[in-house]
Amino acid sequence: MRQVPSATPGPIRQCAELARKDLRLELRAGEALLVTAPFGAVALLLVPLAIGSDAPLLRQVGPGLYWVVVLLFGVLVTLRQSAVEGPAQLAMLRLCGVHPAVRLAGRTLANAVLLVAFELLLTPVAIALYDPDLSGWPWLLPLFPLIAVGLAVLGTLASALAHGLAGRTTLGALLVVPLAAPLVLGATQTLAAARYARQPWAWLFLVLVIDLLIIVATALAARQLEESA
Amino acid sequence: MPSPVSASDSIVTLMDVAVVVERVPVLRGLTLGVTAGESVGVVGANGSGKSTLLRVLATLLAPVRGHGRVLGAELGTDESFAVRPGIALVGHVPSLYPRLTLRENLRFLARLTGRREQAADDALELVGLAPAGDRRAEACSQGMLRRAELARVLLAQPRLLLLDEAHAGLDDGSIGLVEVVIRRVSERGGASVIVSHDQPRLRDLADRMVEIRNGQAVPADEEVPA
Amino acid sequence: MTRILFGRRLTVVGVVAMSAGLVAAMVAPPDRVQGDVQRLMYIHVPAAWLAYLSFAVTLGSSVGWLWRRTARYDRVAAASAEVGVFFTGLAIVLGSIWGKPTWGVWWTWDPRVVTTAVMFFVYLGYLALRRATVDSVARARRSAVFGVVAFVQVPIVHMSVVWWRALHQPPTVLKPGDPSIDHVMLATLLLNVLAFTLLYLLLLRARMRLAVVEEELERTSLGEGQELAGNAVLAPRLERS
């Protein structure tokens, strides 16, 4: 009979440990929140320079621009260099008996936490620059984590697919961004519906369904991706 | 304590294995057996495929031809998932996270594999790195990282130990660590496969020697000109 | 079956059908409102049909690869995606050219148009992923995973933009009752759809044959005769130079 040297902890423990490690690495590298977030803020600042500082216009396009920036720059957060394991580290994790799905789940968890922080950092910037209509703002509370999770899963998947390839950040982004279109729509339409006193539930539900679908798809794909990593 | 294992227990069997890395054939027609308690030294010229062999034994690289078993698991199948925690690979590239301290690295591994954090600290202590435990891996010398890797092996308590460039970067005082680590594995009924260019030292450590030549493993009873 | 699909007959039938389709598109009556511009429909619609068909085939063969791990599935998936990207691009460009005189704009934010554009970029990403991966097994594996995830997303993208806004002209052919299109025009359209489907099969077959040759080339270079990695390393020449 084969013997495993110790009682390996459950997948949830392992996932939490991996996420904790990722977050600690990000804390020390400061890549997502100290580099990518300011970069996103710069993008928000540049748009009015390009389209004109017409206050009513900016007020109208503000929320949409915010979510586009969250999507485009959030992808960079998920593809950050500090979340790339070298071959030696990957070998070590694999030999620790970490199942590929658990490895992806840990990365997703860390990504989601970082993305929520990223969204929260950019929110005051967008409000200050665009002065958007904030009626219906409580809908942002479920929206932030839902969008973050969806983007986190897609980013994890793209990162795994583009692992070790030339131009992985651009390739990863190209793989994710078109597929994330419904997330942007869901986010902007939830808020628009709330503003016009229509039921935002449908759009929120759409985001939730997308999240669940890509979680399931990624979990099923995890085992397949293992050998290529 | 694991039950004592009879000497005939097979840890590794490779039969006529061929391995291709990035489209380049590296190993071809390689056959190798390693039994419990044994330590096998591997020598060969640069680029002959020694490190590739270790990756195959670690179940991280599947052969394109032939078949093999490691710790009972058929290579290239899902069976390898179950046996991986019993394998430790120390490659020639450090596997620690550069931005974590040595202690954080080892404690992370301990928690990930269900061991107490104290075991990680003990392992650091044993390799003489306890005072440097709070130093980030990126700030450590090559030799310190090698010692930390050996601490990782002590923590993992593998049944199959795979050591690449076993003596590289270690000072005279710590070179004995390699032997300690290998002995511990053998005592628990495991086996070691060790690659080193320091042939005299390797011959002292290993029960037998093989050379990788023309993609195959051949017995190397005499000194091999490397 | 294979003989029929892969025999010379397919080429003959394909060429005949394409010529017939072209002639029919020329002689079909012009649209009462749009005039001759409307003839673009006979390419635009079949191209769009091929786009969906090829990506569905890519999905099917990606699943097939993950299930069976046979190289043939990977070849079909890749070939179909390449053909699909070409016809998606063609459908978008023709749609744009058709849209300008008809709707007065080059681009419209209609759900079907947006979905098709998203699909174009998704599968461009698929091809980029294939190009970037050197190892053939890793390439097959990664692109199969992406091929599945991508197509699963396509209906979601479509539904979300449908709910967002709907402007595109409602279905004229695939709806219950009498199609609201002239019968000659309908026949011409169907003929062209058939002809393009045959063209798709021809292109798919050609691309797959090419892939087989490419793989054979790779295999020969990997064959028994190929040098082992270690043989490229010689002992250094230490004697005085």
Overview of the molecule:
- Chain B: This is Transcriptional regulator.
- Chain B: GO terms for molecular function: ATP binding; ATP hydrolysis activity.
- Chain B: Keywords: ATP-binding, Nucleotide-binding, Transport.
- Chain B: It comes from Prauserella flavalba.
- The complex is a heterotrimer of chains A (about 230), B (about 230) and C (about 240).
- Chain A is mostly helical and about 230 residues long.
- Chain A is built from nine helices and no strands.
- Chain A has one domain (about 10-230).
- Chain A has helices at about 10-30, 30-50, 55-80, 85-95, 100-130, 140-160, 170-175, 180-195, 200-225.
- By secondary structure, chain B is of the alpha/beta class.
- Chain B has a single domain (about 35-60, about 75-220), classed as 3-Layer(aba) Sandwich (Rossmann fold).
- In chain B, the strands form two sheets. Chain B has a six-stranded mixed β-sheet, with helices on both faces. In chain B, strands 2-1-4-5 form a four-stranded antiparallel β-sheet.
- In chain B, helix 3 (about 100-110) crosses helix 4.
- In chain B, about 50% of the residues are buried.
- Chain C is an all-alpha fold.
- In chain C, helix 4 packs antiparallel against helix 7.
- The longest helix of chain C has about 40 residues, at about 185-220.
- The mean pLDDT of chain C is about 80.
- Classes of the chains: A mainly alpha (about 230), B alpha/beta (about 230), C mainly alpha (about 240).
- The interface between A and B is medium-sized, with 32 and 38 residues.
